[in-house]
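As a warm-up, study this chain.
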Amino acid sequence: MIDQTRLCLLALHFIPGVGDYLIRQLISYCGSAEQVFNTPKGKLLKIPGIGEVTAKAILTHQAFGSAETELLKVEKMGARILFYLDKEYPSRLKQIPDAPSLLYIKGNIDFENPKSIGIVGTRQSTHYGKECVEQLIAELVPHQAMVVSGLAYGIDIQAHKQAVKQGLSTIGVMGSGLDIIYPANHRETVQDMNVNGGIVTENKLGTKPDAHNFPMRNRIIAGLIDALVVVEAAEKGGALITAEIANSYHKDVFAFPGNVGKTHSEGCNALIKSNKAHLITSIKDLEYIMNWDASGPAPQKKEAFSLEGFDPDEQIIVRLLLEKNPSVIDELSWKSNLSVSQLASLLLTLEFKGIVQSLPGKLYRLKNT
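Now compare it with the structure written out below.
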């Protein structure tokens, strides 16, 4: 029996021209994914970003057939879909502004591992680069850190293989559908990863590994981690894109230095020279910057407020604002699964209590943070 709520959420992704942002808008204004499909055309047209073509596509319900077929295929291949509204959705990923509204997942993944490190680099890796990866992952064992990369040739696949060898959890983020392993000859490594980790993508089944998918893939890598380590990178390429994204998310970026004048060193050296990455030569550099203790879990953020005395819905809002302060009301609505009208009333109550302050542009922030 297919869960209708999940079917409606997936159906939104099969409406032409509707992406993550519009899905958030629709759910925020309508209250739920199910209600989107029951909202009259006139009201749909009042939602920013929704025009005649999109409103008509929603109300024809044609997306349900594709969504049902997709759910059955995913279930058959032993995978699952996580939606942004699910409690199991990765908390790190939820904090980035352009988080995917769903994830296709296969394997045995604990997204909430206390320590998560991304390792990326050139596809044309050298013996030096592979040695850096091998050394770093061996040094990560006492931390039991999760290793995240992109399953590509070179540094990426070396990171996955060494993580498997050392018994660390590892996640491969794909630029294709879950059913299309790319590169294909990494399939055996993926099978090994699925025991303690697995593969993740936001792309529908059957999506080919086209070039435009990979920058989007890189933002998921950056979102799932606490810190990114770049090991060998040319002046331009996917590793540097991931580093730029990680910096924009305020994640710590590290880079191994390389020989001057070597193509595969230019990217790392440029990151270090421009202060876009910390220089790393061993785990001690990462431990110092990240304040990691090898004998225990990563330090946890302390809550700025005691949640005692707040209603359950008020607690949700406070927690969301602790994660991202300030936040736009539409984003709070999407993350809390509360309608905009419900949320506005709750925010007003919290404002009267002196907990929340309203700002221009539909922004809300916690006071005294």
